């Protein structure tokens, strides 16, 4: 998978992972992929709902060593 932009939101609490994700998604083009890493356990529900509400595609999410990883394709 080709990653166009990366957001490191590790150690940040809600709502900062969403704030950083929103800022980053505005900096890429439609169809490009944003990768987000966070340690905020609430981010799974938050980012899933945020992507859906914005029409973006949550391609995949994964957990690795307490780090939640998300890949979102911009609408």
UniProtKB/TrEMBL annotation:
Q: Which PROSITE patterns match?
A: UPF0033
UPF0033 domain sequence ranges: 7-31
Pfam families in the cross-refs: TusA (PF01206)
Q: Where are the transmembrane segments?
A: none
Spell out the InterPro entries in the cross-references. TusA-like (IPR001455), TusA-like_sf (IPR036868)
Q: Which family does it belong to?
A: Belongs to the sulfur carrier protein TusA family.
From the Swiss-Prot or TrEMBL record, give the protein name: TusA-related sulfurtransferase
Q: What organism is this sequence from?
A: Metabacillus malikii
Please spell out the taxonomic lineage of the organism that makes this protein.
Bacteria, Bacillati, Bacillota, Bacilli, Bacillales
